[in-house]
Every structure is written in structure tokens, then in C-alpha cells.
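User: Thanks for the earlier help. One more: Multicomponent Na+:H+ antiporter subunit C. Can you show the sequence and predicted structure together?

Assistant: Of course, both are below.
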Amino acid sequence: MTLALIVGVLVAGGVYLVLQREMLRIVLGFILLSHAVNVLIFSAGGADRRDQPLGDSPDLATTADPLPQAFVLTAIVIALAITIYMLTLAVVGRKDDDTADRSDAARADHGASEDALDIAEVARAHGLTPEPTPRRED
């Protein structure tokens, strides 16, 4: 029952973080989801109600199944590699990340107040130049 609750909490936290906008939170959500899957696979092996997987006794009723433990070990290595790759993408692609709110970034860069931004400031935050307004000749 305890392992089921741990898996549920990890999945809930992981799904919440994956649905966020920032890349670092998505990576943390992926880590929580991978831990949840590892605990689920590990609990399927019956390690809590049996003995060691490769123990002294050859009795199959008391030894735990070593296959889920091998799967978890492999999944840990794969999840670590994917996490490092995702963190590298998050650091390298930080400037290209369009998930952050650009108006907040423009306020922080320019030290502006909480008032509404003008068009030129928003355009500069998005890397665009504002279109020139046509002049009227009177």
C-alpha cells in the first residue's frame, strides 16, 4: 500500500511539473515520472514479500524475481541519460525558449513598472522591430 501511495504522489507531482511552461520544471517532472515508474516496476517484482533475488536458497517461493530489478537498473541509466540531454537542451536553447512570458522579461530588462508596455518595448522583447508609422503630409 505504501508503494502505491508513493507512486501516486510521484506521478501527480510529475504530471503537474510536466504541464508547466518552463523547461527546467518539465525536466524535473520527467525525473519524478521516471522515479514513479521505477518504483512501480520494482514493486511488481515482489521484493517486499520475498528474500534476496539471488540468495543462498534455490527455493523459488522465497527468492525475489531479479528481472524487475534489472529493468529498474536499466531504466535508471536511460533516465539519467535523457535527463542530462534535456538539461543540455534547456541550457543551450534558453534564448530560443518561447515558453517564458516575454512581457515579464521586457519589464525586468528595462526596469519598467507594472504599467502596460508600449508596442516598441514588446517588439524589442520579441526580437522584432516595430513597423514605422506612415507620416502624413499636411
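User: Great, one quick takeaway?

Assistant: The chain has two domains: 2-55+63-92, 100-130.
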